[in-house]
């Protein structure tokens, strides 16, 4: 059945492509954060271990919301490591960084997600896709706040 939600097929396709990049960035950050949770050591272990768990739990819920939005506008959501690695601006973390470097890499990851989400606004706004705009706004707010809180740990 054709989709008739008031957004042109070509706009929905562009939005789905952008959301796929957001999904890939979010999933890659989820994986990186889970890795940090498992492998953090040092004097801030307890604090960081719990914080990373909170972050990856939130990201696990977010990837579902993003993927479901892609499906809602009529496109398949990417779902393999191969697709995510091709679409993501966030690269996997080799080895086990120090706790301080984990925090820095986390800040970089959250800021990358913000940039990816923000890059979608021109097409979303021109297509009057309020639902996607709302999703993007929520993701941007959360990731900007998380990056700020992480940066505060480095001062």
UniProtKB/TrEMBL annotation:
Residues 17-155 form the Ferritin/DPS domain. Keywords: DNA-binding. InterPro entries: DPS_DNA-bd, DPS_DNA-bd_CS, Ferritin-like, Ferritin-like_SF, Ferritin_DPS_dom. One of its GO terms (molecular function) is ferric iron binding. Pfam families: Ferritin. SUPFAM superfamilies: Ferritin-like. Belongs to the Dps family. This is Starvation-inducible DNA-binding protein. It comes from Marinimicrobium koreense.
């Amino acid at each position: 059945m054709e989709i008739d939600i008031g957004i042109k097929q070509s706009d929905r396709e562009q939005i789905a492509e952008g959301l796929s990049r957001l999904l890939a960035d979010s999933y890659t950050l989820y994986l990186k954060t889970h890795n940090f949770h498992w492998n953090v050591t040092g004097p801030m272990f307890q604090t960081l271990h719990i914080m990373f768990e909170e972050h990856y739990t939130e990201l696990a819920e977010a990837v579902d919301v993003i993927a479901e939005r892609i499906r809602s506008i009529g496109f398949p959501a990417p779902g393999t490591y191969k697709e995510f690695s091709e679409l993501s601006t966030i690269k996997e973390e080799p080895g086990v960084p120090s706790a301080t470097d984990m925090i820095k890499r986390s800040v970089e990851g959250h800021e990358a997600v913000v940039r990816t989400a923000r890059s979608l606004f021109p097409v979303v706004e021109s297509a009057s896709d309020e639902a996607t705009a709302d999703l993007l706004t929520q993701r941007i707010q959360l990731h900007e706040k998380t990056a700020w809180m992480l940066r505060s740990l480095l001062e």
